[in-house]
Write a structure and sequence with these properties.
BirA Bifunctional Protein, domain 2, SH3 type barrels, about 20% helix
């Protein structure tokens, strides 16, 4: 696959492609701190192997779509890392919001465990995969709709993009330059101090606390139904079951808002 451009942002080496089947696939052969970015991908996927197709515009303006190869000690790996990366992305958008005096334009939040939500609509997401053949290597995929979004997304939420929600001057290059340094810093904090060090930050941005919810597994089968109470200190969703009133913690799954 032809590389269009190669450059650095801090410690990260960026390889840009006009088109790619999937940045996550290309990243399987990349080195730690390499970033594989594509302006268009045709066989991308999100969690539970859901399709993430991005037509893009060919110049990195309409999307921010990339995969990062990060060294994570195997004994430190935990599935709540996906929520940490979600916090990083939400706070990066908020930083741009502050820099551009757009505080009153949009409500930016994180739908547990990995969806980026703006004004109640899905604008992006995060995926994490272990390297298929290298211990201690994690591949992080991040996708944000900047000026383009698909007509449909594999979510109960309507799809949107940053431009539609008031961020008309922002492009994919801006987002990449802010997310990557924040990503490195947040992973280092998580490795040193654990998930609990992010808890207060998460509590200010978590989406749909208090809502009636259904959490489903990868096969779309319900795990639990009830009221979404909180995220605990380990990054699990805390649900109060409808029928029994029992408090249940769920470490992974997809959260859907129900009527």
């Amino acid at each position: 696959m032809t590389i269009k451009r190669e450059y650095y942002i801090d410690q990260f080496r960026i390889y840009e492609h006009d088109n790619a089947s999937s940045t996550m696939i290309l990243a399987q052969d990349a080195q730690p701190f390499d970033v594989i970015r594509a302006y268009c991908q045709t066989k991308g996927h999100g969690r539970s192997n859901r399709k993430w197709h991005d037509e893009g515009d060919g110049d990195g303006i309409s999307t921010c779509l990339f995969s990062v190869v990060m060294p994570i000690p195997q004994e430190k790996m935990h599935m709540n890392l996906i929520t940490i990366i979600g916090i990083t992305v939400v706070e990066s958008i908020k930083k741009i919001q502050l820099q551009n005096n757009l505080q009153n334009v949009a409500n930016i939040s994180l739908k547990w465990p990995n969806d980026i939500v703006i004004n109640g609509k899905k604008a992006g997401g995060v995926i994490i995969e272990l390297s298929s053949d290298r211990s201690g290597i994690v591949i992080i995929g991040i996708g944000l709709n900047i000026s383009y979004h698909p007509d449909k997304c594999n979510s109960i939420l309507e799809a949107t993009c940053l431009h539609n929600e008031g961020f008309s001057s922002i492009n994919g290059n801006d987002m990449l330059g802010i997310i990557l340094p924040n990503l490195k810093q947040d992973i280092e904090t998580w490795l040193t101090h654990g998930f609990i060090s992010f808890k207060s930050r998460l509590d200010t941005i978590i989406f749909s606390i208090g809502s009636n919810t259904i959490i489903k597994d990868n096969n779309e089968s319900p795990i639990v139904q009830g009221t979404f109470i909180a995220i605990n200190n380990e990054g699990c969703a805390v649900i109060k079951e409808y029928e029994t009133g029992n408090i249940v913690t769920v470490s992974h799954g997809d959260l859907f808002i129900s009527d």
